[in-house]
Design brief:
This protein has 311 residues and is mainly alpha-helical. The chain contains eight helices and six strands. Helices cover 21% and strands 5% of the residues. The chain starts with 25 loop residues before the first helix and ends with a helix.
């Protein structure tokens, strides 16, 4: 399920190599496209990279002393096939590996291609996760941009506000409360020309820990880290928050197996973003329409007056 499969079976007959089925990735198998349970891939699903195999339920479940000693479990398959059981504990890796178990020697000491931290089905790059802390912005900037600004993955300037902070989920919803106004113009009207498209306003981002999310770590994931406009010890990253605008692209240096491959923290896709080319070129706000209508009415009245005087 780690999406790291091949058409041919491994020569050794053991992992971490494995063949592909029709559905090759955890997010396609378990997000509604497959026949099993549905999981939310906007949250970490590192189990997708945990090695497992089918086991004999009679021997695996009947030896209670060994189970207690090794802390192993075997569960019935979701396929509901009588006698079909699986176990993660039977296969050595860094996620499940009973300490007292004697394993057949695995490649690099593990039957998993990825570790629990490098798994592509973690939502945020390991080491570059959101800090949940924006205190270093200072009281004045928090008043200007909102108390929660940048704490978690969200497109904080998109103008789509969830006022009840208890209702905010991991899907990119965010609070407002910016003294300058919750729209992108409110946040950054003095710095950007909003008669031009500014689709970055709909791109999710958050503050990260610069001492951990170093240039080397960020480059390893194919993302960038920038310093806050305040020029203080506050750093942010768009790539740390997966969406259709930006996301980590190479956590294992083997593209395209990127972290957050199924996550999307943007509330607007590019074509629907209020600050995108498509929206700006094809629609006008109510205020702009009123202004345009008033101008047209004045122009009409002037034309009529000129025509009357010339009679």
């Amino acid at each position: 399920m780690d999406n790291k499969c091949s058409a041919a079976a491994p020569a050794s007959g053991v992992g971490p190599e494995h063949t592909c089925g029709t559905l090759t990735g955890c997010h396609t198998m378990w997000s509604g496209e497959g026949e099993g349970e549905t999981y939310n891939f906007n949250a970490d699903q590192a189990w997708c990279c945990d090695s497992w195999c089918y086991v004999d339920p009679v021997t695996c479940n009947s030896i209670k002393a060994d189970q207690k000693k090794y802390k192993t479990t075997a569960k019935a398959s979701w396929l509901n096939v009588p006698g079909l059981y699986y176990s993660y504990d039977a296969c050595q890796d860094d996620q499940t590996a009973p300490a007292a178990m004697s394993y057949t020697v695995a490649k690099n000491g593990s039957y998993a291609t990825y570790t629990g931290t490098s798994c592509p089905f973690k939502v945020m790059p390991t080491g570059c996760e959101c800090t949940g802390d924006n205190a270093k912005l200072g009281a004045e900037e928090l008043k200007n941009h909102g108390a929660d600004y940048g704490k978690w993955c969200a497109a904080w300037e998109d103008g789509n506000i969830t006022n009840d902070s208890t209702a905010v989920s991991l899907l990119g919803a965010h609070t407002g409360g910016a003294g300058r106004g919750d729209t992108c113009e409110g946040h950054w009207g003095d710095d950007y020309n909003f008669t031009d498209p500014q689709p970055w306003c709909c791109d999710a981002w958050c503050y990260v820990n610069r001492s951990i999310c170093t240039d080397a770590v960020a480059e390893g994931f194919g993302i960038k880290v920038g310093q806050s406009w305040t020029k203080t010890d506050v750093y942010f990253s768009y790539g740390a928050c997966a969406d259709s605008y930006s996301r980590a692209t190479k956590p294992t240096n083997v593209a395209p197996f990127w972290q957050g491959m199924a996550a999307n923290f943007a509330q607007f896709e590019k074509s629907a973003c209020p600050y995108s080319v498509a929206i700006l070129s094809n629609s006008l706000s109510g205020a702009n329409l009123l202004a345009l209508a008033s101008s047209a009415a004045v122009a009409c009245a002037m034309a009529l007056l000129v025509a009357t005087l010339s009679l």
